[in-house]
Each structure stands twice: as C-alpha cells, then as structure tokens.
Amino acid sequence: MIACSKLYCGKITESDSMRYGPDKHKKPIVVWNMTKQCNLHCVHCYINAKGKPDANELTTETAKKLIDDLAEFQAPVLLFSGGEPLIREDMFELGAYSVQQKLRTVISTNGTLITPEVAKKIKDTGFSYVGISIDGLENTNDKFRGEKGAFNKAIKGIHNCIEAGVKVGLRFTINKNNFSDLKGIFDLIEKEKIPRVCFYHLVYAGRGTKMIEEDVSHKETKEALDLILEKCEKFHKDKVECEILTVDNHTDGPYLYMKLKSKDEERAKVALKLLEINGGNSTGIGIAEIDNLGEVHADQFWQHYSFGNIHKRKFSEIWMDTSDPLMAGLKNRKKLLKGKCAECKWLSICNGNFRVRAEAYYQDVWAEDPACYI
Predict the structure, then answer these.
(1) pTM of whole model > 0.90?
(2) Residue 96 above 90 pLDDT?
(3) Strand, coil or helix: what is 3?
C-alpha cells in the first residue's frame, strides 16, 4: 500500500507503525478467503467466487486451530475475505475468537449485506475495520458487480458501519470501465463522509486474468495518480477527514516522490525514507493468503500455486519453509528480476512490484511488471 495521505501530505494515521515501523515485514498480514460463496458476480474477482460454497471448506474447528497458530506466530492482522465472508454462518464466532486471541481482525466485503443489525454485530464482535468494495458510480458499479442495486446497498452498508461506530473504508479497483468515474468517487467520498479509500490497480488473476485488455494504459495510470494526489492535497487543505491510499502497484511510490520533490524537497526526503522502510511489494514476505480449503498462497492473487495445506502442516511452518523455489525467490527476489525491473533505480522502494502480473502477461514470474508506468 502507498499511503498517499501520509507520504504526500504528512497526515498521521494509526497504521503508520505497520507500514513504516521497525517490525515491518517481520510477520505477514494474513488474508483468509474463508468461502468461495458470494451473492454477487464481479467481473474482476481474483478467486472466481460463485453462488455456493466449495465442498470441504475449512470447518469452524479447523479455522480456530488456524487462528491459534496465527496468534502464536504473531501475525499482525487477519483479514476475513471471500467470496462474501458475511455469508459464512460462523464468521462472527470466528471473528470473536480471533479478537480474543489478540489478532487485529478485519473484513473485506461487498457491503450489500451490512444491515444496521449486522453493523452493530461487527462492532460488538470487535472487528477493527471493514473494507467495502465499490468499483464505480451507480451504473458502472452495478454492471461491474452483476446486480442492479448493488451500489445503493453498499452505500447503505457504509452508512450503517459509520452509524455503528465501525471504522470503514471504500475499495475501488481502477480499470478502463470505471476510469471516468474517479472524480465522481471523490465527490461521493466527501458527500458521504467516508473516512478511508483504497484505490487498487488491476491484478491479472482469477476472472481478472480475462481483463488484461481492460487495464488502463500507462498514460491513464499517471492521470489517475495525478488526480488522486491532487484530491489528497485538497482534502488535507480543506480538513476533509479521509485517509487515501493506493494498492497493488508500487510504482506509485517513486511517482509520488518525484511529484512531491518538485513541490517540497524536504518533505520529499521524508517520504523517500518512509518508502525505503516500507520496502515495496511484500508478496511472500509481509502478505500471505489462505484459501477456503486451507491452501497457502503467496498472496490472494496466487490461487494457482500452493505452498502447502494447513490440514497437513501449520501455516507458520509452511510460511517459513524456503525449500520451495518460489517462496525462496519471493523472499529474496532482487537478483532474479529481469527486464527494466532488474536495473531500476527505484528497486529498493518497489521490490520488483507484482510478480503474478508479470507471470500472467509474460509467462515469466521474474519478468518486468507490465503495469510499471515510469
């Protein structure tokens, strides 16, 4: 994640220690895609969610053993995702158990199922944060999600979280189909008083693999970043309380730094230092994923490659085992990178960006990331 509010405007946020503190990358944030079942059918879904759960999804008992292992391993965050996690009947039981084990426990959801009652239950359970996906204004989002009315339901879900005192944010994946909605999304954020927004770059995985041609051009990516940074600065100046981040393209780091350097060289030096501490893409290092069947992946976009299953070995053992060439490579990738990534002067703050995107585009894990725009 590139914390634009922090780096570009100097805004202090509660997640600073996780991104820029001394324990950065010590243990991974763990995404658990707890079910493949979803009530929507998003065109870019990285996990190919569907209308019913897979057979043999992790049981409540097995999930609790996983949570015990993550707590002992000192994973900083457990993120419940899907599919749609709110569909799982034991989600709140498992959420409460995770909180009890002192894991920071968060939810990634489409938001359409968050009624006032559900929002209160999220609050009472102790979830730290809820990220709600909205990929455009009403018509764009509903087409993207495959259901008319999904936008309004998600907005209500955000309202219900805010009213219940739950920290909530909007998640937006940039692509050609919603690129023109970006300005409107900022208007929406300001109007609805949404306190956090994450702008995701498209990753070519799952159903998103079919969207390679739907990704924005490098020129459009720069235009998107220019707008995001402009709005970030305006919100800060106008005291609009909204934390702004970009996700899944670490090229945003050097791009932000270069823009900031032309405006304020001293603040740019601080931003560069923080980017160096962050270290760039942390797939296989500071981010991990466990799917609904217990397979362990380098991150949520690596569904096609498993390092092992938690039914056979604990996650903590699988994650620290570098006998797998991909795991070893991801943890120490710089010497393996090819193309412009291998010689890039920004490698220390990007770390070669997204390897799964390079694999999808070039059929080579260590090729340059095609989404790099500088």
Answers:
(1) yes
(2) yes
(3) strand
User: pLDDT tens-digit profile of 147-157?
Assistant: 999 999 999 99
pLDDT band at 335 (very low <50, low <70, confident <90, very high): very high
Mean pLDDT confidence for 59-64: 98
Measured CA to CA, the distance from residue 286 to residue 23 in angstroms comes to 10
Structural tokens at position 6: 């922090």
DSSP single-letter state for residue 57:
P
Placement of tokens 């995404």 in the chain: 31
Q: What is the DSSP letter of 313?
A: S
3-class secondary structure, 173: strand
Give the separation between CA 313 and CA 306, rounded to whole angstroms.
13
Beta strand ranges found along 248-312 (DSSP E): 287-290, 295-297, 308-309
**How do residues 188-203 score in pLDDT, each as one tens digit?**
999 999 999 999 999 9
- Exposure string for 320-336, b = 16+ CB within 10 A, e = fewer: eeeebebbebbbebeeb
Yes or no: say if 172 and 216 are a contact pair by the CB < 8 Å rule.
no
Spatial separation of the C-alpha atoms in residues 87 and 99, rounded to whole Å: 19
**For residue 367, how many other CB atoms are within 10 A of its CB?**
20
Please give the share of the chain, as a percent, with pLDDT higher than 90: 86
User: In the beta sheet, which residues pair with residue 30?
Assistant: 78, 288
Q: What is the pLDDT of residue 212?
A: 78
Do 337 and 366 form a contact (C-beta atoms < 8 A)?
Answer: yes
Amino acid in position 300: Q
Peptide bond into 95 cis (omega under 30): no
